[in-house]
Amino acid sequence: xxxxxxxxxxxxxxxxxxxxxxxxxxxxxxxxxxxxxxxxxxxxxxxxxxxxxxxxxxxxxxxxxxxxxxxxxxxxxxxxxxxxxxxxxxxxxxxxxxxxxxxxxxxxxxxxxxxxxxxxxxxxxxxxxxxxxxxxxxxxxxxxxxxxxxxxxxxxxxxxxxxxxxxxxxxxxxxxxxxxxxxxxxxxxxxxxxxxxxxxxxxxxxxxxxxxxxxxxxxxxxxxxxxxxxxxxxxxxxxxxxxxxxxxxxxxxxxxxxxxxxxxxxxxxxxxxxxxxxxxxxxxxxxxxxxxxxxxxxxxxxxxxxxxxxxxxxxxxxxxxxxxxxxxxxxxxxxxxxxxxxxxxxxxxxxxxxxxxxxxxxxxxxxxxxxxxxxxxxxxxxxxxxxxxxxxxxxxxxxxxxxxxxxxxxxxxxxxxxxxxxxxxxxxxxx
Length: 431
Description:
By secondary structure, the protein is an alpha+beta fold. The chain is 60% helix and 14% strand. The protein is built from 14 helices and ten strands.
């Protein structure tokens, strides 16, 4: 096999040498070289004049919007003016030289050369995404180089004739390469489309957060599902085989991936019902509590008050008790405990504390004002609690409670009410 390729390469080299020698000795070939040089100079002069004009026309400046984005996108293709102008001129000149000289191989080679230069400029100056640059560098430019020398069709035919057999499955190397390139492009395009659509949907503030998340997930499934089916069609795989594979996959999910399937279905139910959504502060039976910052197909991510993330499977939100402390800014009630000495006139305490807590700017009067209650008689103190309402969640240590306790302390000190500490009486007996 290797020796066959060596013989083939030597044959190509000998053929190229004969062609080059024939061109050097042919007046018609020299005329075509002159035409190529003129086409290059004209294309360069045209691009030099037209390039700045197009740049000024297409530059959107600081503007934003769909039209500005399209103009900014078109502006990236300005570096292709010179090779594309030269390609157009040589494409027209090829017809002329073939009618005048009866041949146009030199001009045809020049046309393919300018197309190769356009591919290089496209990869180097137009593409900005790192993945697309990599694909252009190792796929587009080599293909353009092979096309320039007229070897692309021959190489493709050779790759198509090379068959790989894996049991009963047979496919050519060309089909494998085509599938890899097409799959890479399709899934990159799917990922880009998914990011764009997700950004647009999440910017629609009139939609509920659960509706936005559900729409994002639905579009994601639709985009990548369509990309997968299109890839199967490009590779020439019968879609009936995909149906069989889908049935086998369903059996596998039913037997071995029950938890993943359960979490996926639970995630869809959560998004549809909307009882818990991104931004809610929740507490589960297992003790996990925090703000939902992200909902995925498999789990919800809670952020605790100290910045830690807890990944909770979606199934837990369906099968266990969930306490939702928030509904996008609803009022919530909390309480602060304190004690006073037994010598205190406890009838004065409720009015003093309720007035002090009500003066805090974050404490609400609706649905109810602060309420101070007697809770019990301890060993060394009389125990009270003050209940108060705030707009939001006390999702961190000392967010509201600290300020309330400070207000209670200051109010008791101002009224001369003692906050007790444990006291013990020791009786000494002399025998």
